[in-house]
Design a protein that fits this description.
Layout lengths: L2 H10 L7 E2 H7 L6 H10 L8 E2 L9 H13 L4 E2 L2 E2 L1 H4 L28 H12 L7
Parallel strand pairs: 1-2
Antiparallel strand pairs: 3-4
Length: about 140
């Protein structure tokens, strides 16, 4: 699958009443930090729910009448705004699974917590496993 195909797959999966940022689309497609690729995919794509993709923090990034149209389409889907921005805490959508064709991330041998470190509970379990593994009896 091409780069734009993977981006379009993520965009097409955004449900009604939910929004996603340009950067989140790129990251979900396997291209973290490539928000501008999302913009190019939206320009090239046909029939995509373009109005469900917003700027960072829920900002409507399109200028003038296009921005007003995006805001109107989102309101028709039930999306609420606070101070001109989409309420991302209510309407933000995070893809649960990676789209087909995107590369898999390498996983660590041990699970890590959100800060990237090994949690205490995990360390205890892994030490116990290592201590009682058949290879440790040799």
């Amino acid at each position: 699958m091409t780069v734009f195909g993977r981006l379009c797959t993520v965009i097409a999966r955004v449900p009604r009443g939910k929004v996603i940022t340009y950067g989140q689309v790129a990251e979900a497609a396997g291209f973290p930090g490539a928000a501008r690729l999302t913009v190019r995919a939206l320009w090239a794509g046909q029939g995509l729910p373009w109005h469900r993709v917003v700027g960072a923090g829920g900002r409507i990034a399109l200028p003038g009448p296009q921005g007003e149209e995006q805001r109107l389409r989102l309101r028709l889907e039930g999306v609420t705004f606070r101070g001109g921005r989409v309420r991302m805490d209510v309407h933000g959508w995070i893809p649960r699974r990676r789209p087909p064709g995107s590369p898999r991330r390498a996983t660590a041998a041990r699970p890590r917590n959100r800060s990237g470190r090994y949690s205490t509970a995990t360390s205890v379990v892994w030490r116990a496993r290592r201590r009682h593994s058949p290879s440790s009896y040799e």
